[in-house]
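User: Quick sanity check before I run a bigger batch. Here is a single chain. Can you write out its predicted 3D structure?
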Amino acid sequence: MAVHIPGLIMMFLFYLLVLGIGIWASIKSKKMEKNTHSGQLEVSFLANRKVGLAMGVFTMTATWVGGAFIIGVAESVYDPTKGLIWALIPLQMSVSFIIGGLFFAKPMRENNYITMMDPFQRKYGKTLTAVLAIIPFISELMWVPVTLISLGVTVSIFSDLPLSLCIWISAAVAITYTLLGGLYSVIFTDVVQLSLVFCSLWLCTPFVLASDVYTDITKTAFNNTSQASWIGHIEPDDVWRWIDNFLAMSVGNLAFQDFHQRILSSSSTSTARMICFIAAGVVLVIGIPPVLIGAVAASTDWNSTTYGSLSPYERGEAAMVLPIILLHLTPTTIFVVGMGAIAGAAMSSTDSCLLAATSIFTTNIYKIIRHKASHRELQWVIRVSIAVVGIVGTSLTHLDSSILAFWILSSDLTYTVALGRTGFTFSTGLLRLFACCPP
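Assistant: Done. Predicted structure follows.
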């Protein structure tokens, strides 16, 4: 594959930009530490609880709108065995935000917790909490390869570099700026990344729709002839599986530290709730372009494109249908911009996973073991933890290059274990804790 010079230049500038923001955020974070009476953990993990409404909406939405979100939605809509009815990730995440705003934002923010495990620590004690914290920590660790694979694929498309090397380069950038500025870096880079994602996707979609190599998507929506319907259908035997998937991606998301970190970093309780409700709407809007692109892919006559006679599904490349569509149905400039959207989305989720895993380990595991840890010691624990989580998470990409494999593993840990009846539930447990047993 030939080197795509414009794409490489775009990726280089993007990486340079986020690194610059990370360095600037690091300086801001150090000044904040000197001028505040808050603890080291609140500054590093919660941006000193001073995140306003606008910044909060950006970082909350960017946390979940990752490369897996964009690519996964388009793939599911395109896949003839699934379709739109199985690609409800935007709706599921919107429901998750609404539930979080209604039931979690107020009690979590009013009690000034640092992590989602703090309510358990108050009710059940430190030792049991440290054991329970292992599950969300591993879940966050499993999300690192999910985000990095999609980011590495973006870089590899523009170059002749091996996928593994592209993943490590991307990981190094994400680890570095997260290490430098903590949540400040994550928030400010999220603003840049989500802006890029939003504008790029909505810029690319009209060019895709303007192509003349596909059948009108309104005609193929319920098509039962040569092309499968991109709306999809549910067999009677699959109803319970569909319900299970919907709950896993809506209620299950409430068991991730990333979500609660945004609530707890908000400047007030009302701000925390509004962030959730606004993000619920924004994530639906961002989900529209990948749905339309997936629908176009399902309706495309691939013989009329430069891709070839066999479809991406027949070649086993359904997971890459979004970049394939951008490459073969849009001008080069639009393709580069679209891949930039995927890169921005992927990196915005990578840094969130690194910081979320580190916050749980430092606050609910290390501090319980070393409850007299000094300020300087905690600083080093945070730095080392971010680096170790990043390196271990990146190393896991060598086991499997499938985004879906790690996604399922991470979701299963939070949904079946953290939310299961056999263990202490995270979401329902928190609801009962706040409703029946106020701290």
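Residues 421-439 have pLDDT under 50 and may be disordered.

User: Great, the batch can go ahead then.
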